[in-house]
Design a protein that fits this description.
- The structure is a homodimer.
- By secondary structure, the first copy, chain A, is an all-alpha fold.
- Chain A has a domain at about 140-460: Na+/H+ antiporter like fold (Up-down Bundle), CATH 1.20.1530.20.
- Chain A is about 75% helix and about 0% strand.
- Chain A contains 17 helices and no strands.
- The first copy, chain A, has helices spanning about 1-10, 30-70, 75-85, 105-115, 120-150, 155-185, 190-200, 205-215, 220-250, 255-290, 295-315, 320-330, 335-360, 375-395, 405-410, 420-430, 435-460.
- In chain A, α6 (about 155-185) crosses α9, α9 (about 220-250) packs parallel to α15 and α10 (about 255-290) runs antiparallel to α11 (about 295-315).
- The interface between A and B is large, with 102 and 103 residues.
């Protein structure tokens, strides 16, 4: 009670924050920006704290509901984001969304409690949007680093040819069918069509592995092939993403660019893995000789951020570098320790990414009562069909395994997730994806993620898997 | 080799990033800022990755050297920051430092590798400075949350009156002597003198506990009193910080403000602890019923960030709220788990704070060959003497313990650290602290931290402590 009184009484005090003597920045030529900075600094921190509380609250509230009804929690983070985002409650500020401005609830709260003035609002909104955006990008970098750490090149090589066939078919079929269908049926331009087709490719390792573990099928032959294919599929998906994101940025499909990017993606990924394998004994020896707290974590983050930076500046993606760093460190004797230490950091940062992706999504384009939305909805339906059929057929292609549960493999590849959402996020950031198609991709990710867990339960029960102890 | 070629060849490509079709933001009134944002977004991410690599590299390089010569690693992070900062190498960009701009190495590297143009440099510099600043403030919030988690109200109550006397004397004597001396001898204005005096108060729990553990004196009676006093001392120091920071912001010493702030700090801290104790069983029950990954961590962070936000908007400090949240959660049965999960996050974010504090410090004011610096150097010498003597006398005040090692207790209270640096950082951020006095505070923190570990070894060896098994 005394808190509430204190906060109300403080409104006039807030004025004391504003007029202060600042050092003379005008000499530096940053007149406008530098003058704004000292006034807005603590407001941006307060806005960041508020935004994070909102993001975490939304991610856990809807995430817990999803967990209760046996749906992946990543879905809850996404839906939570949609609810607090520009489509519904408009709590967070995104200057590039166009809807941010003074209407966002977080800015209204700062005006009411922290002395934010209407004059300062545009600068605070811009800084806050930038900070939340960087935190969410750090989240996806940490996520891909974690996926890399959880991946296992040796396991992939062991389950071998079957996994490779499943992965390649599961990338080629949805990509080709999706892209061709969007161009032929919906007259979508080539670049966004390729982008949407690419978003259909990558199976979510996280969701698939979690569902398999819940069904106790991780060690079955089907489970091994699914995990192996999902790992390879993820690498292919990220290469496709890098290629497609660059196409989206340049706005053209130059075959020279494509070849350059495929080659540089492959050289970068394979090169950093080979170089990393060569250097990793020295990495382990160095970390073992270090004595300060957090030495393993900081050394790993330096490695991940350097590769992420190189990945970004050679026009691939920062996340590709982080993934390669994870793959390399997964091969070291320290990988369990690194995973354990990255876990809380991922728990802290990754939800920011998914919630922000959801929050930036304008789902109003999927309102069926608005005639302008029909094309987006039909595209979403088309993408969902291609996404499911394109993965289910992969099970039929498994060779040399007569008594294998082909349906289980195909269905196990259905859930898209992190990488599919990364496509939507990158497409949104580069501005190349029409809003209807971006929303259709998100609907596709949501539906494939929804449908896979119950389906997988059905197909594993109808024909018990051939249990095989490997390892 | 192909990487290097690729990077050089890409320079003309970078131009393709720039001209793109953006949504029409002019309607929103954010013309300048919004047009800059989509172009600068990926550059800010790349700059953030680079800055973090530089920060981590500096913190570990110098931190490891400090660990080798038995000095606290936090010292290494600070000195590492000084080396990469505006005083020496000027690698990072700080727009408020005035020295940032195009001279910072991180911006030159972005110009050379990532296609940053001179026109975009001011905006990217401003955004990058803001992002690094928020990350460093998140670092100190997490640090104080962690210190709160490691504190123990019950332990403090048990070691009781001796610890309280040591803590109060160890706050009052350096504060009074430091403030009075600065005003009387150096003619410093009241507000900065009070600020510098306040920076002399808080013993570093982390450094003291670590040194005691290394000497295996944590369970001795002296060790118990030191830790107990340091915990209370830290709380007093943070209340003093909140009061003084507000004085610095308003620029006046109004007795009404002081009373209001002491009362509101006490009400906020005690209120949130009592309320938190009342609510914490529900917190534990709720977390136990949650099923999603990271539920304990996210629930804890929501709690910490909400209290930090309230602490900030009622004109105290965000870190005070984070500390209170840590104290409350330290009382729950989950505190070990929370500590374990906060550890990697602190390892990731806290060094950013210390390195940034060091990097923003202009140590050139301590150059003894420049006559203009003499006053700063003499002030630093004065602060160091007050800081050491003001804590050593506390051991003499311990009553009812005839055979106790009084020198050990006094020397154990010497190291300042996190909280002292927080004072320097807050003073720097509010602009109220003259550069010479700010640098003098940092020299004081460095020297007290330097001198305590070897001194403590000497005083414990000269008169063996009365070992006592408690608990």
């Amino acid at each position: 009670m005394s808190f509430a009184t204190g906060m109300i009484n403080l409104s006039p005090w807030s004025l004391l924050f504003l007029p202060m003597s600042f050092p003379d920045f005008s000499q530096q030529g940053y007149l406008l920006l530098a003058e704004a900075a000292p006034q807005t600094g603590s407001l941006v921190l307060e806005g960041t704290l508020l935004s994070l509380v909102i993001i975490y609250f939304a991610s856990k509230l809807v995430g817990e509901i999803c967990a209760r009804i046996n749906l992946p929690t990543v879905l809850g983070e996404l839906v939570g984001g949609v609810i607090i985002g520009i489509s519904v409650l408009n709590l967070l500020v995104f200057s590039e969304g166009g809807l941010g401005g003074s209407e966002a609830w977080v800015l209204q709260l700062l005006q009411g409690t922290a002395g934010l003035t209407p004059e300062l609002t545009p600068q605070v909104a811009e800084s806050l949007s930038e900070v939340i955006s960087i935190l969410s990008e750090m989240g996806v970098i940490i996520l891909l680093f974690e996926i890399g750490l959880e991946s296992n090149l040796k396991e992939l090589i062991r389950v071998g040819p079957q996994a490779a066939v499943v992965a390649v078919i599961g990338v080629v079929v949805p990509f080709a069918a999706g892209t061709a269908g969007l161009i032929a049926i919906f007259h979508v331009a080539t670049v966004p069509a390729v982008f949407a087709g690419a978003a259909l490719t990558a199976t979510s390792i996280g969701i698939t592995a979690k569902v398999l573990a819940e069904l106790q099928q991780l060690s079955s032959r089907e489970g091994q092939i699914i995990i192996g294919a999902a790992v390879l599929d993820d690498i292919l998906g990220i290469i496709v993403l890098a290629v497609v994101a660059n196409l989206a940025k340049t706005g053209e499909v130059e075959i020279g660019n494509v070849i350059y990017l495929v080659v540089s993606a492959a050289v970068f990924l394979i090169g950093s893995i080979l170089l990393g394998r060569f250097l990793s004994p020295y990495f382990v020896a160095m970390v073992n000789r270090m004595e300060t707290r957090g030495q393993l974590l900081i050394a790993s983050l330096i490695f991940a951020f350097v590769l992420a930076y190189i990945g970004a500046v050679i026009q691939l993606e920062a996340i590709l570098g982080a993934f390669a760093a994870g793959l390399v460190l997964a091969e070291t004797e320290k990988h369990k320790e690194i995973e354990e230490q990255i876990l809380p950091i991922a728990d802290m940062l990754v939800p920011i990414f998914f919630v922000v992706v959801g929050a930036k999504t304008d789902v109003s384009v999927l309102n069926p009562f608005d005639p302008a939305n029909r094309e987006g909805l039909i595209m979403a339906a088309f993408l969902v069909v291609v996404a499911i059929v394109g993965k289910v057929v992969t099970g039929l292609a498994v060779f040399g395994q007569p008594d294998i549960n082909r349906w289980a493999i195909g269905v196990g590849m259905i859930p898209r997730g992190e990488v599919g959402l990364v496509f939507a996020g990158v497409g949104s950031a580069t501005g190349i994806l029409p809003k209807s198609l971006e929303a259709a991709i998100i609907v596709m990710v949501i539906l494939t993620t929804f449908v896979a867990p119950p389906l997988l339960r059905v197909v594993f029960q109808s024909a018990p898997a051939a249990v095989q102890e490997t390892g």
